[in-house]
Design goal:
Layout (H helix, E strand, L loop, with lengths): L2 H17 L31 E17 L5 E23 L2 E8 L2 E6 L2 E6 L2 E11 L3 E11 L12 E12 L4 E12 L12 E11 L4 E12 L7 H10 L8 E12 L4 E14 L1 E14 L2
Antiparallel strand pairs: 1-2, 1-14, 2-3, 2-4, 3-6, 4-5, 6-7, 7-8, 8-9, 9-10, 10-11, 11-12, 12-13, 13-14
Length: 299
């Protein structure tokens, strides 16, 4: 083990002790609230029928590599499992010619960092505004929401985040084929306990979805996530960086690709599996994401 990796291990240990290290702790490992590759490829659009929809995201993220800003790999085992029910109501109302809907999305987390386990209720996402302009050939959606830091101490990110998401779909073969492109931007507030104000994040997602039958869907997806500026650190962390020669709070990025398979059991129930592999990261973990998602649509 080199001197630099020893320093980085020490920094991670200090971060874990000082920040109640959650799985995607911003200001420590570069990620924000929004995690791409969990939702299904077509989930970024509002369903075309009014009514109640329940979707349960069951996900598992694992990594044994923390990548520094210089591209050096550090051995550090991280895993995070979660259950995130999404409660959606699609209304009959129109706003600016678009269908209006809203939802909220709590999450229950279980994190393990180098054998140190934390569990509890994570931060709550509320999206009071979700608009969709849909026709047979394309669909454009706009969502605005907020993450409230109401989670348990060991898993909360301890900051407010405002999120804007713009997604577009292009349909072919009577909507059996869908091409997706989406942009998500996060504005972060200050972490109360540490005084860190994380840099904003931009996530670009893209995908191809194809129904092979009326019930069976396959897809290919990818994403890139960038931290737009370095974290605004308090003097204590700036001094720690100088002392250890580290770069905690540096701008981060990650890129990944994956696959999806989904099946409609009947007109109301859908089961979908997603897998994504991260292939490039900087100033954050690089790993794999699995999700098994259940959808119920009330007719």
């Amino acid at each position: 083990m080199t001197i630099q990796s020893n320093k980085s291990k020490l920094l991670l240990a200090l971060a874990a002790a000082s920040f109640a290290f959650p799985a995607f702790a911003d200001g420590i490992v570069g990620a924000g609230h929004y995690a791409p590759a969990i939702a299904n490829i077509r989930d970024l659009t509002v369903p075309d029928q009014a009514g109640f929809i329940y979707e349960q995201y069951n996900f598992y993220y694992t990594s044994d590599t923390l990548v520094t800003s210089s591209g050096k790999d550090i051995n550090a085992d991280l895993s995070s499992a979660g259950i995130a029910p999404l409660i959606l109501w699609v209304t009959d109302w129109e706003v600016l010619g678009a269908r209006y809907s809203f939802y909220f999305n709590p999450v229950l987390l279980s994190n393990d960092f180098d054998g140190e386990e934390d569990q509890g209720l994570g931060d709550l996402y509320i999206q009071p505004l979700w608009l969709s302009w849909l026709n047979m050939n394309h669909d454009v959606t706009l969502g605005v929401g907020v993450y409230a830091p109401v989670g348990d101490d060991d898993v909360t990110l301890d900051m407010w985040t405002t999120q804007f998401q713009l997604a577009g779909y292009y349909y072919m073969m009577e909507q059996a084929t869908a091409l997706m492109l989406a942009a998500t931007y996060e504005f972060h507030g200050e972490v109360d306990e540490t005084g860190v104000t994380p840099g904003d994040h931009l996530t670009i997602e893209y995908g191809w979805s194809q129904y092979l039958t009326q019930q069976f869907e396959v897809g290919i997806r990818g994403y890139s996530q960038w931290q737009m500026e370095s974290d605004d650190l308090p003097s204590s962390l700036n001094n720690l960086n100088q002392l250890l020669g580290t770069d905690i709070g540096n701008k981060s990025e990650v890129h990944g690709v994956g696959i999806q398979a989904a099946y409609w059991l009947n007109s109301q129930w859908n089961l979908a599996f997603n897998y994504s592999k991260e292939y490039k990261a900087e100033s954050r973990f690089e790993g794999e994401m699995y999700s098994l998602n259940l959808t119920y649509m009330m007719n």
